Amino acid sequence: MIWKEKVECAAPADLRELQSGYLRKLIPYIYQNCPVYQRKLDAVGVKPDRIKSIDDIKRLPITTKEDMRDNYPYGLFAAPQNQINEIHVSSGTTGNPTLVGYTRDDLKLWGDVMARVLCCAGAEPGDTIQIAYGYGLFTGGLGFHYGALEMGLRIIPTSSGQTARQLKIMQDFKPRIIACTPSYVLYMAEEAKDMGIDPTQGNWKIGIFGAEPWSNSMRNEIEAAWNMLATDVYGLSEIIGPGVAQECRHKDGLHIFSDVFYPEILDPNTREPVPEGTDGELVITTLTKQGIPLLRYGTRDIVSIQYEKCRCGRTSPRISKIKGRTDDMIVVRGINVFPSQIEHVLVGIEGTQPHYQIIVDRQARKLDEVEVLVEVEQRFFSDEIKRLNEIRDKIRKEIQNVLSIGVKVTLVEPKTIARSEGKAKRIVDKRTL
Amino acid sequence: MKITQISVFLENRKGRLYDVCSLLGNHGINIRALTIAETESFGVLRIVVDKSDQAIKLLRENQFVANFTDVVAIEVPDKPGGLASILKTLAEHDVNIEYMYGFVEKFSDKALLVMRFEDTDFAQQVLAKQNIHVVTSKEIEGL
Q1: Contact B65 A378 (CB under 8 A)
Q2: What is the pLDDT of residue A423?
Q3: Would you list the domain boundaries of chain A?
Q4: Which chain B residue's Cα is nearest to A190?
Q5: A140 near A211, Cβ under 8 Å?
Q6: CA max distance for chain B
């Protein structure tokens, strides 16, 4: 089922017309209601009435995470606070947290795009969904909740954590759909086994996983562990929360709801568009949002995009899975390192589940050192030191091949690397720069 | 006859060996023989216990990575040259020993040794031909 077939399957020309119409309304609205954007638009010499079509988007200024932080709390709001119906705050690791606010219409939009997400993943009216994303200030739980309400699903709002209870609820109420982070669903598979539950016989048949980047190898692990379809959902609170893009059953890219969230893929350094299919930073303009409409917001997520119509019938463009983060990327001795590269190596080596952590450290007057902690699995454990060393050396060699820098690999006991029920901490950077 | 050794992965962290021993002890499982192979960051604890099945279940339930390994326990004359004579026989038959260690107890005047062979079945045949006493699981349990 396609929730909003008219826009999700629209002919490209019709879609552009829709987007152009939205943009023509958006720019004067922002210009009149948000002084920060008024200054930004003036600075690049854009007169609101000169924005005619979606192609003019290139002339608009870029918005960054720093703009969000610098104008905390209300600077980027275009609607007055008495029109705001709900706010969410994400913790800031540096400086101010990020505040987002939704008008009543924004919440309707959120419910609509999340209903599209659920349908795109394969949900049918009458299905039961277990929502194991955190409810609260994090947008994951409530975003899914609004979409499921809109669609008319039976909702089990478990929120995150309390794994034994999650599993009991799965067994007792037989939800066909699970929504949580990909690392949490893998963690739950291990816990299930420990509790004597065979996850391949579990009730979840469709998983909608997001809030952290994950690879296709990890997808294979999840699908094998739970015997389910594992799909990727994309979103960020600055844009709306979850509900920006979602994979259909073909798992060939995430359909981005471009009628309301207009995507561009730009070179992270030059901010110039890259050719179709080339990696770049995903930059999004919210075409219809009222509370905090954002122009060309740099998501810091590295993806590529394709505009070809999908086998599922949707014409909405598809972004790739996140290939990296412009900010999570660490630079070690001049080499760009993405956690996903190391995850890929680990899954490629038989028997290793991707439970790992990368530690970067710098001793005085020495080169940066990279240590990768890998949890030992029952499957590849041996009583012989030489076999364990062989596996360790194989992991080290393959990581070195991929990264072109020397790394140290350390085998650690299972479950010693913290599994967050929110986001997995893959990199610990101990360097004092 | 083979006996069962339990191998446990341990990080080189304070208290980990204690954790294993107290876990087994609290459940009335007795360690008959023990050795640790170590590297700079991790070690492998190898133990022979009286109740192997119960022990491995317990260890895995407590998040340890633990496997069964087939080993052979033999009696060695407790006198100068006792071990050498057995090793000579094994070497003459090209039997490779991966590692070996001693038992805490013995049930005769002979010493008890655990040996891990590359090819356990072949090693047993060689030992049998030389009339070297291979200890059975029953005997271990009754120690």
Answers
A1: yes
A2: 52
A3: 1-326, 330-429
A4: B63
A5: yes
A6: 45
Quote the strand ranges of A269-344, DSSP E: 280-286, 297-303, 305-306, 318-319, 324-325, 330-332, 335-337
Enclosing H/E stretch for B100: strand B97-102
Q: Is the pLDDT of residue A422 over 60?
A: no
Distances (CA, A) of A32 to A28, A75, A148: 6, 13, 35
Q: Which of residues 344-403 of A touch B (CB under 8 A)?
A: 376-378, 381-385, 388-389
Express each pLDDT in B9-34 by its tens digit: 999 888 999 999 999 999 999 998 99
Encode pLDDT of B84-126 as tens digits: 989 998 999 999 999 999 887 777 788 889 999 989 999 988 9
- Closest partner residue to A381 (CB to CB) among B46, B67, B99 is B67
**Contact present, B81 and B65 (Cβ < 8 Å):** no
Distance of CA B13 to the CA centre of its chain: 23
DSSP state letter for B96: P
Asked, as a colleague might, if the bond just before A73 is cis with ω within 30 of 0, I would say yes
Tell me how close the Cα of B55 comes to any Cα of chain A, in angstroms: 15
Q: What is the per-residue pLDDT for A91?
A: 64
C-alpha A274/C-alpha A263 separation (Å) is 12
In this structure, the number of other CB atoms found within 10 A of the CB of residue A302 comes to 22
Q: Where are the beta strands (DSSP E) in B23-90?
A: 31-38, 42-49, 66-76
Q: pLDDT per residue over A368-388, tens digit each?
A: 889 999 988 888 899 999 999
Residue type, B47: I
* pLDDT (average), residues A76-86: 97
The pLDDT value recorded for residue A62 is 96
User: What are the extents of the domains in chain B?
Assistant: 3-68, 71-141
| Residue range A249-267, pLDDT digits in tens | 999 999 999 999 999 999 8
CATH class belonging to B3-68: alpha beta
Please check whether the domain covering A1-326 is classified as CATH 3.40.50.12780.
Answer: yes
Q: Which residues contact A219 (CB under 8 A, 6 or more apart)?
A: A182, A230, A232, A251
pTM: 0.65
What is the homologous superfamily of the domain B71-141 according to CATH? ACT domain (3.30.70.260)
Q: Which fold has domain A330-429?
A: GMP Synthetase; Chain A, domain 3 (3.30.300)
Contacts of B37 in chain A (CB under 8 A): 385
The residue of chain B nearest to residue A409, with distances taken between CA atoms, is B41
Q: Does A378 sit within 8 Å of B44, measured CB to CB?
A: no
Q: Among A92, A93, A140, A137, which residue's Cα sits nearest to residue A117?
A: A140
Kindly indicate the confidence band of residue A344, based on its pLDDT and cuts at 50, 70 and 90: confident
